[in-house]
Structure formats: C-alpha cells, structure tokens
Amino acid sequence: MNAEDPVTAGRRQRFAEEARAERPDLALLCLLLGAEASPPAPGEADPYGVDAAQIELDRLAGLLPYGARDARSWASALAELLGERCGFAGSSHDYQRLDSSVLQQVLRRRRGLPILLSVVWIEVARRAGAPVFGVALPGHYVVGFGDPAERVLADPFTGGAPLSGEDAELMVTGATGQRLEPSMLVPARPLETVLRILNNIRAWAAARPERTDVALWALELSLLLPSHPARLRYERAQLLVQRGEFLRGAAEMDEYAEIVDGIEPTAAEAIRHRAQAARALLN
Fold this sequence. Notes:
By secondary structure, the protein is α+β, with helices and mostly antiparallel strands. The chain is built from twelve helices and four strands. Helix 1 (6-19) runs antiparallel to helix 2 (26-37), helix 2 packs parallel to helix 8 and helix 9 (212-224) runs antiparallel to helix 10.
C-alpha cells in the first residue's frame, strides 16, 4: 500500500474492516474492490460509485414481483428481470476486459464475468428476500436458490438459464476434467467469492505484463482478507522487484523466508538468495 496516499489507505482500511465483520457485506466489498480499478473524478460526491451502485441494486430489487415464492419461481423471476428485461449476461469477449470484474462497471454495462453477474443476482435477490447463495463451481460461478439440499441452480452468464444436475456436471467436467463433487455445490462464503474475484483480476494482469499496477492492488487487497494463501506475500515481493522497487521487494522476501524457514528451510534459503539478488540490482 502507498503510505503517502491517505485516500487509498482509508478505502483499504474500510475494506479490511468489512472483511472482518461478523457478516461481511459482499456488495460493499466488491464495490470497494472496484474502486481500485476506477480512479475518482475530482470533486465527485460519490467518487467511487459505491452509493450509486447500492442504489441501483436496491432499484432492481424493487422491480421484482412482491410476495413469497418457491425456489424455482425466484429463479424464474430473476431470469425474467435481470436476464430478459435488463440484459445482464456475458460472452467470451468479457473475459478480456478488466471492467468485467468491477461491480460498478458490470451494473453500468450489464456485462461481466460469471462471478460478477452472479454477485448482481445474489445482491438483487437478497434485497428482495429470496433464499439465494453463490455456488463456486470450478471454472464457472453460478447462483443457487432455496434450501442448499434441494437447490435450484441458474447461470447468470447465460441470462439466467436454469441448470440441471447434469448441466452442472458437464460444466465442471468441461472446466476441470473431473466429476462434480457434492462439496462443489455448497454455498460460497462472501470472502471466498471476493478472493476468487481478486484471483481472476490477478490472472488478467498476469497476461498483460504492462499492468503490474493492477496485479499489485489485487494482491494487496487479497492480503487484507483475514484468510489468504501465505504464498501471496512472496508473489507481492516478486512483483515489487519486477516494478523496480528492489529494496521493498527484497525486504518482503526476507520476511516471507522467516515464515517458511521452520517448514521448508531449503526453500527459505533460496528465497533469501533471491532477496540478495534483488538488492544487487541497485548496484
């Protein structure tokens, strides 16, 4: 994090606090994440579009028919509103765009990756009182309605097409070559969803060496989550070196080496050598 930027520091503090809340707000976390990708215009009352996006989610929820319904009826109502009337969906082209992972932009463009479109569905449905949850299938995030034991699945990426058990099986097999396991269908927790979004952003940036700025803020937000892979600290150190911040990167490599020293001393020693090599680049 850039310590000289109090606006960024304040926003990330809010992100970290929300991530540690008893019941993290998925929409707010996604919008604070999106603020990293959308620099504010000077003097705007809502510079990161957080309030406007929350208002839009509320507005969409208000368009759903009022009254209790079963899981299949909820899924149909969301598909009719978001998929048909509003045109929320995705295509292969959306995988090439960073704004397909930014909730503010997905609400504006009505296009996005499966996981962001699912976040829209989840947040609109939740506001309307629907029993809704995310389902983090390998390679393709979808939405579930009703009791998780008797779920009804829908795919927001295709406008809300219903998914049978066989459809889900084919989706997982096509993405991973493996069979669908019951554990893949459990409701996804908000922080798992946010980390998966950040992983997508890091993958997008990794394919674009000129966008180390995006890779860095995605890593730094990942590290603010209360549970994250320890290796992300080493990845951040490597990225700092790649960006020419040799001393900061070397210092973080040394810190990471201390963490792994008790488990893999050989790996720790190799990391220390890389830290020395990074410092040597200053000479």
